[in-house]
Design brief:
Layout (H helix, E strand, L loop, with lengths): L1 E7 L2 H12 L4 E10 L8 E10 L5 H6 L8 H44 L4 H8 L6 H4 L3 H13 L16 E6 L6 H15 L4 E5 L5 H14 L3 E3 L3 H10 L5 E5 L8 H11 L6 E7 L4 H11 L6 E5 L8 H9 L3 E6 L8 E3 L2 H8 L3
Parallel strand pairs: 4-7, 4-8, 5-6, 5-7, 8-9, 9-10
Antiparallel strand pairs: 1-3, 2-3, 10-11
Helix pairs in contact: 3-4, 7-8, 11-12
GO molecular function: GTP binding; GTPase activity; signal recognition particle binding
Subcellular location: Cell membrane
InterPro entries: AAA+_ATPase (IPR003593), FlhF (IPR020006), FlhF__GTPase_dom (IPR047040), P-loop_NTPase (IPR027417), SRP54_GTPase_dom (IPR000897)
């Protein structure tokens, strides 16, 4: 390396000297301004000093022996070389990553869009597609694999399915609670018909829906057709007595009046009715046609009655099942039954996770 010092009255002149002397490859190491002449440096002429260097290829051993001002040691050179290599590798890696981003986003965004189209909340959809593999072999020919991975991931939210199980000894008591008109009474009729007529269990009905005469009549008609007893209760004490009277049954199904989630008094009344027996298996009945925000509110408000399961109705009327997934994502809760129409007793089945997830991923 050749290092030289140049002085001139302007920086342009100094640079011209550097260029003509050392060539275009010269590197400027240092520049400074100073005054030449005058009194103690004052009033002198302003000058520019430029220190420049150029790499000279070694010519024989003589060139190597030539002393230079900033000759790096062999160790330094090795360090620089390895840093350069590392930088080059990092650059390559960055380029690879950047080139992958649009592809990954496009692929994940198509699954994300599908979830959102099915009314899965955007935040939840984003979390669900996050971290799905972006291996090239998967992106390319086999993208259904990624879809399958998402399918499996969604199934995890539907894993806890538990219908009504009749104990060897004792009576199973099941109550359906929920907002108005979601299908509680119809579902009670479907369950009663299936357990009594199809499975041959001894079943009794209790209705606590005494708000409307029509409501009692509705369930009484079903009880008569099925040929099972029905009790009407107004107070917690009557509930206790009715449960005691039917302690010989395999299954007692309790129908309740639809409650407004905004009526704290009604909810407290319902809670009091159900707290007479800690073993009552309480299912919160929700319609799949309910908007997620409303369903969320319902789950929060009905939680005072400590339901253990969700029972989803009107799947035949729902345009999608986003609400179901959103709820299960927020509240990992057991699922019992899903109903799919007005026909008693046919339109009901035990929740089927893969069937439900398939509906959530419906194109
Ligand atoms: N499409 C469809 N309709 C249903 C389903 N389940 C119930 N229904 C209908 O929904 C309406 C209300 O059903 P009910 O069983 O009376 O609802 P509820 O929850 O008992 O209503 P309240 O007692 O007033 O709170 C009726 O017309 C039922 O036939 C279902 O799965 N699909
Ligand atoms: Mg009803």
């Amino acid at each position: 390396m050749k290092v030289k010092l140049y002085t001139a009255s302007t920086i342009n002149d100094a640079m011209a000297q550097v260029k003509s002397d050392l060539g275009r490859d010269a590197v400027i190491l240092h520049t400074r301004k100073f005054r030449k002449g005058g009194f103690l440096g004052f009033f002198g002429k302003e000058m520019v000093e430029v220190m420049a260097a150029v790499d000279t290829p070694p010519v024989g051993s003589a060139a190597l022996a030539k002393p230079t001002l900033v000759r790096p040691s062999v160790e330094d050179e090795a360090k620089v070389a390895s840093m350069q290599l590392e930088l080059a590798n990092m650059r390559k890696l960055l380029e690879q990553l950047v080139s992958k981003i649009p592809q990954q986003e496009q692929r994940l965004s198509s699954l994300y869009q599908l979830l959102v189209k099915n009314d899965v909340e955007p935040d939840i959809a984003r979390n669900l597609v996050q971290g799905l593999p972006d291996d090239n072999s998967i992106i390319g020919a086999a993208s259904p694999i990624v879809r399958q991975l998402l399918f499996d991931r969604l199934c995890n939210y539907f894993q806890k399915v538990e219908g009504i199980t009749i104990p060897q000894n004792g009576t199973k008591v099941v109550a359906l609670i929920g907002p108005t008109g979601v299908g509680k009474t119809t579902t009670i009729a479907k369950l009663a018909a299936n357990f009594a007529l199809r499975d041959g269990y001894k079943v009794a009905l209790i209705t606590a829906d005494t708000y409307r005469i029509a409501a009692v009549e509705q369930l009484k008609t079903y009880a008569d057709i099925i040929g099972i007893p029905i009790e009407i209760v107004y107070t917690p004490d009557e509930m206790k007595a009715a449960l005691y009277r039917h302690r010989d049954k395999h299954l007692v199904l309790i129908d309740t009046a639809g409650r407004s989630p905004n009526n704290q008094y009604q909810l407290a009344e319902l809670q009091a009715l159900l707290s007479v027996d800690p073993y009552i298996d309480t299912h919160l009945v929700l319609s799949t046609t309910t908007k997620y925000k409303d369903a969320l509110e319902l789950v929060k408000k009905f939680s005072v009655c400590s339901p253990q399961k969700f029972l989803f109705t009107k799947i035949d009327e729902a345009s999608n099942l986003g609400t179901v997934l959103n709820l299960l994502y927020q509240f990992p809760t057991k699922l019992s039954y899903v109903t799919s129409g007005q026909n008693v007793p046919d339109d009901i089945e035990l929740a089927n996770p893969s069937k439900l997830v398939n509906l959530i991923l419906r194109d």
